[in-house]
């Protein structure tokens, strides 16, 4: 193979000499004439959207601007447009080549009517048309039955496979058939025992003749529907009654299953990307239209390496203390194991991670093993070299082998035949692939590396991390902050897993936890979306902690702790999942938050810190201190940990862990705060202490107190100030009391007025039903950060990077904003 490569280089050299000998010279000193400025793009079009709900906000598919070499004017009539998933706007602006454009408008308020929006770029126009659905038809003589989908949400993202759709229906003459995309549903009368839909109908009392006198009967239904992977599916509900009255457009929701790849490599032989979905499915991705083509499936894929010599993918896995290298033939889709290796390790040492990079020229795989000794918090690194040409292997480099810089590698990449690594101690090192010697190339001050990519030259690297994206020029060496992270960055890089140079001007940065593959302009540092698999537009939510609803409408407010990014307040439109940033609330310091509350009278949000309450105006994001930090009068708040807000009396009730038989009561109009004492006789030994959160009931007359230290929930009557014990046990499937502070401990409670229950966050989500005095465990351990009830009886939950809808009946969930 090396002889063939040398021969190819010789042929290229000979061809170059012949071309030079043939002439082509010029006596002119002028350079090539630059191309003329072209601001007229290639034609583009939008897909027609049919059967939309009257009056709904309808968003088009994304189109890519092409064929221009300078900024072109963009304008719109009858709607709004968004550039690269930015905010929607209606005014004129400019747009560059390769920009992604979407438009949106409000659908007609009438049935079977159309609405048209015209987008013009550089003089080229296209229409986006939506058509509303037909008016529900009634076949037969009775009033047509109606149906509503409770789960999943109107627009949501789900995992491919079977999804249990759940809803309600009403009819004056029973239900004879209800289907979701043709799948027969199981229907339950709310006043009768559950039955299976079949030829036998669910009949209400009476007949068609006295239809107007009949009362509507309510039904519940579920249907198990198969959802395809990497697709968008509309789920349509049709329902008919016993008299033949049909409603074929009773309800519809949209479910998306598109996944963003967790790892990517570029297949330059076929000019395509190869990606991994969910650490299992390998797909080919066409960069021009982002269509996915399945190749094969494999287990536990943690990275990808492309070998152009044999047109294959190589990746590593580890099971217990055995490491394996695998091959996927990209032509046949076949797989085989190339290497299986078990290093000699002490009995108390285990492999916790294996990552690899590949040198296709020399057919060398470099596998980094991270080893952890029992009882230790720090892993040690070993780098092994596997020669796939002669099936030999060796330990190439480790901290204990020589006096080179300590090996604490976080990421590696090949630059030609040279191996570079970003160390967790913020050093860029080069590892000699023959001797294993490590050399410090340069420091990476105040930068936490998370991904590396080879540049377009043999002396250029890119490193992405929490603080942004660095361009490394090795010839100097010099690091340049190409794209800095800020609190307003639309596409943050705080959770990225990988990076890849697609072409000389485009760096791809993988952020699968938030459903994104970002593209970064290597000249300007500008970020935009390459692949978006989330729900809704706007900056990604990182670590949503506290939630509150507006009094009216479908707006949810979210306090995002930011994880590795800034603390931010968001407004989320629950109909679309769109996110709008309201304010950065870092307050120039490290904050610990204690709550988020909607203050309708001031059109503001109240944010609980650990030592103060601040107000954030929804109009402009400006902040002011309400109580604490010098505002208001009363005892010191620090450290308050949780609370609830009585909007009618403008009173905050806040928990302070160190108080005994007491909580804080704060008047948000004056900032005055008092310690509200109460009768603690219901507590352990007559004392209620360690209260870390509170929740008001629907009438704001009862206050529920969660005592983390006592592993108990109490009820406080705000008029009499008497207390009673509500709950001290809630057992999970492992036989553990999740309220017990030795297990997880209670850290958040919320009151569900519609369901007459209390939501408890304590390592797991639990729902306590007041009527039955029973406790139901929902979801997996440590899955949820917070949860709130929705009006339709399902729950809104938050975890890292996403807002979700959880159905407590089926315990299925979908993402509604990410």
TrEMBL record:
Residues 1-21 form the signal peptide. It comes from the Bacteria. Keywords: Signal. Residues 196-218 are annotated as: Disordered. Residues 208-218 have a biased composition (Acidic residues). It comes from Alkalimonas amylolytica. This is DNA-binding beta-propeller fold protein YncE.
């Amino acid at each position: 193979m090396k002889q063939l490569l040398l021969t190819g280089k010789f042929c290229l050299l000979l061809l170059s000499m012949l071309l030079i000998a043939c002439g082509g010279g010029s006596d002119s000193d002028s350079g090539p004439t630059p191309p003329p400025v072209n601001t007229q793009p290639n034609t583009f079009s939008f897909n027609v959207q049919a059967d939309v709900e009257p009056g709904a906000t309808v968003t088009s598919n994304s189109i890519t601007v092409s064929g221009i070499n300078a900024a072109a004017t963009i304008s719109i009539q009858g709607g709004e447009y968004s550039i690269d998933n930015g905010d929607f706007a209606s005014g004129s602006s400019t747009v560059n080549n390769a920009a992604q454009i979407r438009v949106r408008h409000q659908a007609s308020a009438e049935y079977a009517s159309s609405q048209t929006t015209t987008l013009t770029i550089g003089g080229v126009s296209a229409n986006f048309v939506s058509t509303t659905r037909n008016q529900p038809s009634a076949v037969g003589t009775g009033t047509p039955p109606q149906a509503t989908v409770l789960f999943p949400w109107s627009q949501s993202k789900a995992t491919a496979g079977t999804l249990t759709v759940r809803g309600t229906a009403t009819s004056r003459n029973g239900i004879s058939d209800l289907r979701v995309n043709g799948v027969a549903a199981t229907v339950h009368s709310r006043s009768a025992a559950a039955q299976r839909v079949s030829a036998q109908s669910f009949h209400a009392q009476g007949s068609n003749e006295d239809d107007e006198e009949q009362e509507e009967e309510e039904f519940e239904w579920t249907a198990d529907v198969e959802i395809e992977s990497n697709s968008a599916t509309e789920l349509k509900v049709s329902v008919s009654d016993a008299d033949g009255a049909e409603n074929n457009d009773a309800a519809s929701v949209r479910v998306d299953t598109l996944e963003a790849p967790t790892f990517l490599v570029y297949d330059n032989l076929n000019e395509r990307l190869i990606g991994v979905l969910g650490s299992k499915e390998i797909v080919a991705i066409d960069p021009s239209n982002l269509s996915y083509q399945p190749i094969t499936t494999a287990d536990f894929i943690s990275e990808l390496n492309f070998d152009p010599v044999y047109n294959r993918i190589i990746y590593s896995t580890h099971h217990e203390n055995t490491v394996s290298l695998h091959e996927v033939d990209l032509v046949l889709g076949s797989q085989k194991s190339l290497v299986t290796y078990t290093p000699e390790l002490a009995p108390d040492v285990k492999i916790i991670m294996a990552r690899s990079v590949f040198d296709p020229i020399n057919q060398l795989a470099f596998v980094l093993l991270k080893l952890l000794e029992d009882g230790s918090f720090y892993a040690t690194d070993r780098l092994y070299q596997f020669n796939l040409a002669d099936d030999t292997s060796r330990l190439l480099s480790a901290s204990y082998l020589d006096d080179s810089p300590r090996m604490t590698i976080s990421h590696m990449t090949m630059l030609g035949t040279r191996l570079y690594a970003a160390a967790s101690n913020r050093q860029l090192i080069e590892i000699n692939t023959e001797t294993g010697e490590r050399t410090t190339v340069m420091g990476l001050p105040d930068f936490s590396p998370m991904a590396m990519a080879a540049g377009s030259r043999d002396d250029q690297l890119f490193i992405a991390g929490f603080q942004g994206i660095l361009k490394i020029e090795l010839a100097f060496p010099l690091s340049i902050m190409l794209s800095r992270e800020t609190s307003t960055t639309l596409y943050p890089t705080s959770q990225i897993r990988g990076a890849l140079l697609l072409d000389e001007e485009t760096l791809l940065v993988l952020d699968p936890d938030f459903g994104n593959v970002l593209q970064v302009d290597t000249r300007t540092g500008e970020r935009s979306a390459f692949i978006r698999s989330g729900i809704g537009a706007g900056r990604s939510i990182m670590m949503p902690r506290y939630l509150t609803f507006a009094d009216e409408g479908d707006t949810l407010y979210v306090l995002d702790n930011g994880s590795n990014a800034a603390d931010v307040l968001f407004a989320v439109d629950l109909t679309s999942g769109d996110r709008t940033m309201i304010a950065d609330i870092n307050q120039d310091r490290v904050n610990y938050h204690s709550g988020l509350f909607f203050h309708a009278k001031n059109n503001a949000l109240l944010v609980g810190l650990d030592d103060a309450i601040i107000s954030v105006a929804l109009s402009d994001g400006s902040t002011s201190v309400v109580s604490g930090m010098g505002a208001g009068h009363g005892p010191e708040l620090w450290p308050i940990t949780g609370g609830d807000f009585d909007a009618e009396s403008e009173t905050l009730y806040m928990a302070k862990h160190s108080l005994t038989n007491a909580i804080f009561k704060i008047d948000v109009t004056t900032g005055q705060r008092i310690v509200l004492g109460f009768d603690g006789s219901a507590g352990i030994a007559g004392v209620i202490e360690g209260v870390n959160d509170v929740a008001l009931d629907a009438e704001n007359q009862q206050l529920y107190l969660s005592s983390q230290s006592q592993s108990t929930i109490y009820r406080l009557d705000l008029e009499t100030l008497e207390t009673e014990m509500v709950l001290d046990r809630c057992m999970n499937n492992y036989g553990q009391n999740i309220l017990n502070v030795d297990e997880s401990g209670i850290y958040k409670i919320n009151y569900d007025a519609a369901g007459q229950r209390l939501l408890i966050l304590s390592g797991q989500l639990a729902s306590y039903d007041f009527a039955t005095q029973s406790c139901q465990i929902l979801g997996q351990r440590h899955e949820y950060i917070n949860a709130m009830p929705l009006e339709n009886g399902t729950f809104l939950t938050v975890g890292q990077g996403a807002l979700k809808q959880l159905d407590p009946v089926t315990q299925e969930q979908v993402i509604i904003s990410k």
